[in-house]
Specification:
- It comes from Lichtheimia ornata.
- This is ATPase inhibitor, mitochondrial.
- Belongs to the ATPase inhibitor family.
- Inhibits the enzyme activity of ATPase.
- The chain has 101 residues and is mainly α.
- It contains three helices and no strands.
- The chain is rod-shaped, with a radius of gyration of 35 Å.
């Protein structure tokens, strides 16, 4: 018995467990009757699903970018407000110096 088991293991192709087997039905090259081997990739439902997933990813990505931009704008508004306050303070100091001269 051991000889048979060993010979089966030895004679088995090296990468047989790593490959995926595809089984097709009907048609000369398999697949469905309307498309053959590439019918899944070209079917309308598959394409619609793929577009929907890509659209969802794009919306999420765009929303993340918009949120980052909004945060940047808020930070810039705060910085601009601080600069305006500093400018007003400097103008007041200059006005006081002019009055004292």
């Amino acid at each position: 018995m051991q000889r048979i088991t060993r010979s089966i293991i030895i004679n088995r192709p090296l990468f047989s467990n790593l490959t995926t087997r595809r089984f097709y039905s009907d048609g000369p090259f398999g697949g469905s009757s309307n498309g053959g081997a590439g019918a899944t990739a070209s079917s309308r439902d598959w394409g619609e699903k793929e577009r929907a997933i890509e659209g969802q990813w794009a919306r999420i990505n765009d929303q993340q970018k918009l949120n980052m931009l909004r945060e940047t704008i808020e930070k810039q508004k705060i910085a601009t407000g601080e600069m305006r306050k500093d400018i007003e303070d400097l103008k007041e100091i200059l006005d006081l110096k002019k009055k004292n001269q």
